[in-house]
Write a structure and sequence with these properties.
The protein is an alpha+beta fold and 200 residues long. It has one domain (12-197): Aminopeptidase (3-Layer(aba) Sandwich), CATH 3.40.630. The chain is 30% helix and 32% strand. The protein has helices at residues 27-35, 53-65, 114-129, 144-153, 185-197; strands at 12-13, 17-21, 69-76, 82-92, 97-105, 134-140, 156-166, 172-181. Strands 1-2-3-4-5-6-8-7 form an eight-stranded mixed β-sheet, sandwiched between helices. Helix 3 (114-129) links the parallel strand 5 (97-105) and strand 6 (134-140). Helix 3 packs antiparallel against helix 5. InterPro entries: Acyl_CoA_acyltransferase, GNAT_dom. It comes from Flexivirga aerilata.
């Protein structure tokens, strides 16, 4: 299967969460979500500050226009509240493969099932609709919570890129790379569906 490029904006709908194409209209909801737990204030992440949200939305939409990213806003189904952002990026139609990342969620959404369902929606679209052979995920070594969450998905750790990125505070960070291959997807999907049955 050949991946259609550029990737077209699409809404992915689950029971707990809906992933809608990112829009400037989501600005105020995203600012409110980012202030929920001050998730932007964790030094090892690249989560934008509240005052930088407009620029971050613009940046992601510019990358989308160039075919380099497909950004989503995460919206909780129960109350239509914006709870975060996520994206497809590092898109390579020749393999085809892509990565899921630049993800953050409001603190009150943590542990509610919305993040694993978001990953299920994204992975289903990547493997079943876009024909990906591989989906990558990455995080920073110091972000233990994120590393553990990715491992719980069933992704395999590929390796660590030492001093891969300089944070906005000047610190050098090590990136941890994970991936899920097409033949592993049925097992990953079954695991996610099992986890989510206890949430709905």
């Amino acid at each position: 299967m050949t991946m259609p490029t550029p990737l077209r904006p699409v809404t992915l709908t689950g029971t707990l969460v809906r992933l809608a194409p990112l829009s400037p209209d989501h600005h105020d909801g995203l600012v409110e979500a980012i202030r929920d737990g001050d998730v932007w204030d964790r030094w090892y992440t690249s989560v934008p500050r509240p005052e930088d949200m407009g620029a971050e939305i613009e940046r992601r939409l510019e990358l989308q226009a160039r075919g380099e990213m497909l950004p989503f806003t995460a919206i909780r189904q129960s109350d239509d509240r914006v709870i975060g952002m996520t994206t497809f990026y590092d898109i390579d139609p020749e393999v085809p493969r892509l990565e899921i990342g630049y993800t953050w969620n409001a603190a009150s959404a943590h542990g509610t099932g919305t993040n694993p369902e978001s990953k299920l929606l994204l992975l289903t679209h990547a493997f079943d609709e876009l024909g990906c052979e591989c989906v990558g995920l990455r995080t920073q070594w110091v972000n233990t919570q994120s590393r553990e969450a990715i491992a719980r998905l069933g992704a395999k750790q590929d390796g660590v890129l030492r001093s891969n990125k300089r944070h906005r505070n000047g610190a050098l960070l090590d990136a941890v790379l994970f991936s899920i291959l097409r033949h592993e997807w049925p097992t990953v999907r079954a695991n996610l569906e099992h986890r989510l049955r206890h949430r709905v």
